[in-house]
């Protein structure tokens, strides 16, 4: 499966962005999906995950209440709505798929990443 992220860019603190991740996999609705980010010079940080049906999701404490993960199984697309962005949200954001329905299963594919820069 190929995952392609888009939607990154430069935004001012307090602003919003919506990231998208499109998958080529025909069985899109059978696996969970995750967003991971990596800030410059830092280790990757898990951000959020959603199950195969899109009715359950989890968030890192650093983004809870500001970010919303969602998916559209009809268009094979994963989203990350990011609100009230902070400079510490600056990172390359990657989407990744789990082998099956939920986020506690292994990851087996990654996108190439999209850069989000939060700066005034």
Account of the protein in words:
- The protein has 120 residues and is mainly β.
- The chain has strands at residues 3-6, 9-11, 17-23, 33-38, 45-50, 57-59, 67-72, 77-82, 91-98, 107-110, 114-118.
- The strands form 2 sheets. Strands 2, 4, 5, 6, 9, 10 and 11 form a 7-stranded mixed β-sheet that branches.
- A hairpin with an 8-residue loop joins strand 9 (91-98) and strand 10.
- It starts with a strand and ends with a strand.
C-alpha termini separation: 37 Å
Annotation field: number of helices? 0
- The secondary-structure element order is EEEEEEEEEEE
- Please give the largest β-sheet: 7 strands, mixed
Query: Mean pLDDT, nearest integer?
Result: 96
Uncertain segments:
none
Note the beta-strand portion: over 45%
Count of DSSP E strands?
11
Query: What general form does the structure show?
Result: globular
Q: Rg, please?
A: 13 Å
